[in-house]
Amino acid sequence: MKVIAFDLDDTLVRWHGPVREAVARTAALSAPPIDAAAFAGAITRVWYGRVDEVWTGRLSQDEITREAAAAITAALGVSEAEGARLYALYIRNLTELIEPYEDTPALRPLRSGYRLGVATNGIGETQRGKLRTAGLADLFDFVVVSADVGVAKPDPAFYEIVRATAGVPAHDIVVVGNNVAHDLRPAVAVGMQAVWVQRADDASPEASWAGPAVTSLYDLEAVLQRLG
Question: What pTM value is reported for the model?
Fold first, then answer.
């Protein structure tokens, strides 16, 4: 084993929790008050209703911003300017809430034995910004973001790009992620090994996984030694 490729959201940095908190914070700071559920629904319809376009780069950051502002305007019955302001406030709150998991210090010692990378769905600028905000950017030898390469997990072709970027055979790469269907199974399909990180604040119950699993990144090195 030569390379470890980590998923980002809800594997290295908290994501679903901050999304919920950013909605609540934005609603609480708004005057007059807004319907938090309607606000969250508007954002969800844009972010996840067109997720394939977002993740593969066919919908730009500017387009997402415009569509989200329009969806908020329609959902809350506010002006276009207010819809744009609320979305900008939400993004600012979300950015401030992004933080690494407490076990990410376990990654630094791994650099002595492995090359580390990130393999994540999302928009390049946004995902790299999360790494910088979390203080993790200097740990990684490469970062592959789906919108930059035009293909997203769970398409196994995404992991073929990860393999080419890492510059080693697939069997020399282990993928570490919190989502069995998106992170692990497509990696195994192209010949990589995979380790499931079970996070307490995952958005939904995960599918069954018979492979190696950890509840803390501090346990990862021992698992890698057994795999290696």
Answer: 0.91
